[in-house]
Amino acid sequence: MPDAPSENIYTPRQQYVLLIVCLIGLAVLILVGLGSYITAFLGAGILYVVFRPWFQALVHRRGWNRQLVTAGLLTFAFVVIILPFTALTLMLVDRIRDYAQDTTQIMAVLHKIEQKTGYRFTTEQNVRGLVQQSVSWLSTRIPSLATGLLHFTVIIGLMLFTMYFMFTQEEGFLRGLRRYLPFRASTLRELGESLRNTVNANVLGQALIAFVQAVLTGLTLWIFGVPDALFWGTVAFFTAFIPVLGTPLVWGPAAILKLTQGHTGQGVGILLVGIILIINIDNLLRIVLARRMGNIHPLITLAGVVLGVEIFGILGLVLGPLLLSYFMVLMGVFERENRLHRRVRAEQLPAAGPAEEASPTN
């Protein structure tokens, strides 16, 4: 007589727990395997949020062909955003590496400052080591073709393919998010609103502000005779994303350089234009754009940029503030849910009867 089939040794609860452990383990393995390409999926999500209003207006309202609209958006993203940003990044990285290999220009400026102040605080070895460490740090944070043509091509290809499926299968994509994310519908709406505000404030709004400040910085340096004004204007575009510090990191040292070289009028002119025009144009544009785009607190942006760049590289300019915004949203959700559970529990408790009332003490 054949043996009866053996029973499973796990209880239903153990099976449930082990299923969760297996899912988490597989998810960790997938993330580790895709670690060097995770920026492609994150970038696709950011661009999806940026282009989704256009997609909805053309496909859902005007009834245009979904595939043609998606192809047009991908082409626009590649030609207008990806290629120029890559060119700016390459120019910045290559120039920084040139300065790292030849520190004579940096040392000349520092020696002049030492002559003016009468205090020696640098040696060529220390400056070279500091510059090389800075280049090494930037190389890990700023993606470029220098990291490998194949790697760069795969990242761009993954990002474009991900965007293609997010748009062409938008309904299924959003339905999957609502189904598998462990949040209520109201929480998902809050998270979506936070994502939209963060992307608008730190991609669209900040990119526009950074572009205007970079143009003004480059023109100012060119007018007052600073060498490589185009390069330093490009650097100003990147530094404009840094809260509080921003473009003064570029035109401030340029003014100091002119003053140490004896060109007092040019140095003072750069300072006046930087303080009066470039800084104030930032404040003016922020006030105007805050009414139309996400209004993110500067402290969240500052802490988020520091956190995000360290973890995600240059995409951390957006993902860092987004992480902090999500943390604050989830904290508010937790507080609201906790308050609701306490109220429900209090209503479910039986009312104290007369016999349970405390009698006066003798």
Automatic annotation (TrEMBL):
Keyword list, A-Z: Membrane, Transmembrane, Transmembrane helix
Pfam families: AI-2E_transport
GO cellular component, one term: membrane
Membrane topology, from the record: Multi-pass membrane protein
Location of the protein in the cell: Membrane
Transmembrane region(s): 17-50, 71-93, 145-167, 203-224, 230-256, 268-289, 301-334
Keyword Transferase: no
Family the UniProt entry places it in: Belongs to the autoinducer-2 exporter (AI-2E) (TC 2.A.86) family.
Record protein name field: AI-2E family transporter
